[in-house]
Amino acid sequence: MHLETPKKTVNKSSKEVFDFLNDIKNFETLMPDNISKFEVLNEERFLFALKGMPEIVLQKKEQTPYSQIVLGAASDKLPFSLTADIVEINDSESEVVLSFEGQFNAMMAMMVKSPITNFIGTLSQNLSKI
C-alpha cells in the first residue's frame, strides 16, 4: 500500500527541514491533536500512540542529507516506512512530500488506509510549525 501527501511548501531551507526531521524528538510537534502518548526511546527511535490505536515505534532507517529521511516500523509484525522527501526551492523555501509504504493484506489495508492518510496529512500540514 502506497500513500502520499501533496507537496507542502515550508518556509525553511532544505537543510533546516532535514535537521528538524532528523531530530526525532521534533516529531512530537508534528503529531495530530489526538495523540495520547509520545516518548523518545533513543536518538534513533520514538514511540507514539493515537487515541484508540495501538502504540507504534518508529526508528530512523535511512537518511540522505538535506533531501530524504526514512523512518520505519521497529516491529516486523506490520512492516512499513514513512519517507520525507525534501526538495529545496531556494535558500528559504523547500517542498516536502511524505509517503507511506506498507505491506498489508487486503483486509488490513482497507482498515488502515483512512487513519494513515489522515495521519500523514496532519504531519504534512504541521510542517508549517517548524
General description of the model:
There is one protein chain. This protein is of the alpha+beta class and 130 residues long. It contains three helices and eight strands, in the order ββααββββββα. The chain is 26% helix and 43% strand. Strands 1, 2, 3, 4, 5, 6, 7 and 8 form an eight-stranded antiparallel sheet that branches. Strand 5 (56-64) and strand 6 (68-73) form a beta hairpin. The N and C termini lie far apart (29 Å). The mean pLDDT is 94. It comes from Arenibacter certesii.
Proportion of beta-strand residues: 35-45%
Terminus-to-terminus distance: 29 Å
Radius of gyration: 14 Å
Q: What percent of residues adopt helix (DSSP H or I)?
A: 25-40%
How many domains comprise the coordinates?
A: 1
Overall average residue pLDDT: 94
CATH architecture: 2-Layer Sandwich
Biggest sheet architecture:
8 strands, antiparallel
Total number of helices: 3
Number of strands: 8
Category by helix and strand content = alpha+beta
The parts where pLDDT drops under 50 for at least 5 residues are: none
Regarding CATH, which class?
Answer: Alpha Beta
Query: For the record, what is the CATH homologous superfamily label?
Result: START domain
Write the layout of secondary structure elements.
Elements: E1 2-4, E2 8-10, H1 14-22, H2 27-30, E3 35-42, E4 45-50, E5 56-64, E6 68-73, E7 80-90, E8 93-102, H3 106-126
Antiparallel strand pairs: 1-8, 2-8, 3-4, 4-5, 5-6, 6-7, 7-8
